[in-house]
Each structure stands twice: as structure tokens, then as C-alpha cells.
Design goal:
The protein has 48 residues and is mainly alpha-helical. It has one domain. Helix content is 17%, strand content 0%. The chain is built from 1 helix and no strands. The longest helix is centred in the first third of the chain and has 8 residues. The termini are far apart. One of its GO terms (molecular function) is NAD+ poly-ADP-ribosyltransferase activity. Keywords: Glycosyltransferase, NAD, Transferase. This is Poly [ADP-ribose] polymerase.
Length: 48
């Protein structure tokens, strides 16, 4: 998936995404509280 922030409620699934490669066995796993909601649409200019 490349560089991304992936949220999961299963620790084993999250650990699988944090795995880098066989020659680089180090990875990162962050424990965080995530809230999902409506999209925020950024408007760069005033319409009209």
C-alpha cells in the first residue's frame, strides 16, 4: 500500500501492515484512538 495511515481494530492485521521486508524486519506500530466521521472538504477559493 505504500506510505499511508491505516486504522484497524485487529492488532495482527495492523502489525502485518507495519512489516517492511525480510531484509528489514523493523516496523512501526502506533496505538491510537481513531474517530471516523464525515469528510472535510477544503475549499481553496471562494466560489462565484
Amino acid at each position: 500500500f505504500g506510505e499511508a495511515i491505516i486504522c484497524s481494530d485487529a492488532s495482527a492485521e495492523a502489525a502485518r501492515y507495519g512489516f517492511t521486508a525480510v531484509d528489514r524486519p523493523d516496523g512501526f506500530l502506533v496505538l491510537a484512538v481513531v474517530a471516523l466521521g464525515d469528510k472535510i472538504i477544503e475549499i481553496s477559493s471562494i466560489p462565484g
